[in-house]
Specification:
Elements (H helix, E strand, L loop, with lengths): L2 E3 L20 E5 L12 E7 L2 E6 L5 E5 L7 E7 L2 E2 L10 E6 L1 E2 L8 E6 L12 H18 L2 H15 L4 H16 L2 H7 L7 H4 L9 H8 L4 H7 L12 H19 L1 H27 L3 H15 L7 H25 L1 H12 L1 H21 L1 H11 L8 H19 L1 H11 L1
Antiparallel strand pairs: 1-6, 2-5, 3-4, 3-6, 7-9, 8-10
Helix pairs in contact: 2-3, 11-15, 12-13, 13-16, 14-15
Amino acid sequence: SREKKAVKRPVPHPRGPRPPHPAMTVMELRVESSEGCSMPPGCFIGVRIGDVQKQGRYEPQRCYNFEQVDRRKNAKIDIYQHVGSCIVGVDPDVKSIHEVKVMSTDPAFTGLRLNVNVRSKRETEPVKPPRAERVIAMKNKAKEYLVKHCIEERLSEAVKAILKHQPDDPTEFLCRHIRDGAAQRAPPAQVANTAAVPQPGPQASAVRHVPIVPFASYYREHFTGSELTKALRRFPAATRPVPRSDADTIRSHVKKRFAEASSSGQLRTVMEQRKMAHLREKACQLLVRASEDCNLLSILESVKVDQAKARGQSSPETPAQAQDLKFLKQTACRVLVQASEDGVLEKSLAEVWNQHPSEMTELRKRAALVLKTAQEDGSLKSVLAECTGKGEPPGLGKEDAVRMETAALLFKAAASGELSAALSQLSAR
């Protein structure tokens, strides 16, 4: 039969072969003529990928499916023209020879006959291994041969030597170098046989054989004094700091800071401030605890009794005690007003509230209960009336005015009923 073949050569990928796609198990090919070209009438298309071949009459819409394509391969496409066909009956149990006549569609091949020999293969006959196994066996055999005779090492040494010496006849130099290397590796009997080999001509003998030196020695001899090495020597090497642990660094830094603070007096100031803050906080806690237990007044009275005994008196005088108590109240009021103006009172109350919110709530409830009880029995009204009816005592200024104004506001709220509503709302919380 006549056959027209068109082999499509694969174009190498610029980035090398692609990795196998795990999801691609079936590949589909469709062959059709390009624009401006026409296929011969009645031709057939054959597509082969690996060991699988698909054939069919040429149809532009026909698809050829190939399964188990796990990597990149070449597809061979053949174009056939149908010459003729015939039918032969075969029987696996009977050995026979048939002569058949081919029904040709081409007038040039009229009367074509074929002899068809049919026979069964015996099971004892060796079975030809698959193509993939044969390819693997051939590759392994080739690798064993290369390793056995050190082909790669010989070629590598020969190329290095020819680049180093650059002889006029590289072919002769390469052959001689390979022969000399083979003579050095061969056993004594083989060396005796190679001694009878004729030496090369005078042109090749002019090249002096130099043994191969290690790469490190060769590099130091030929490349250490190059321009690149001289240029690199102009740049000084960076000095590496002496490594030390982070703990030593932190220790030295803290020691330096403490020495500076001690010499400038900042350390003494900070220590005194911390000591005063601690004393203030402790005094505040004691006063709050004493006021909660209602022992503050008794403690002050005991202090006055101790002072009177120290002066030789049996007991403090009642007018003086009342005057001192009034003075203490005025002093406390003055200190509270000053702290309120400076913002210290608000800051201290906020700190106490953040530390003991439940205690502040309890104090508010107790204060509301006391005010409510005083309002019910009439004592609050009489005290407020007494405070508002008195004039401003001598020796008091802004503090007493604030106290009087507060008393007036409380009296007005008690008279209008706003104080009762506020106390009821506060006690309900």
